Amino acid sequence: MKSFFIAKTNSDGSNILHLAVISSESATMLRFPLTSLPASGMMGLIDSPDTHGRTPVHFAAQKRNAGTVELLAEYNADFNATDK
Fold this sequence. Notes:
Oligomer: single chain
Radius of gyration: 12 Å
């Protein structure tokens, strides 16, 4: 099985979880990285802010995507994080 560096970020500091939330209208895109990562690696990404301090939760709430918000809650995302 080929491995890949899942913690990589783009120029805005967005990681794979940010991009999955941004690019999808449902929790489907987010489910793969969350279920594929070991708990220790995923926890570092789920609350990781981009360069503006926004976490995947911020984007899910902005999109009003209840399914994605619920999925992030299942993985103990920080709902008290504040952006810059």
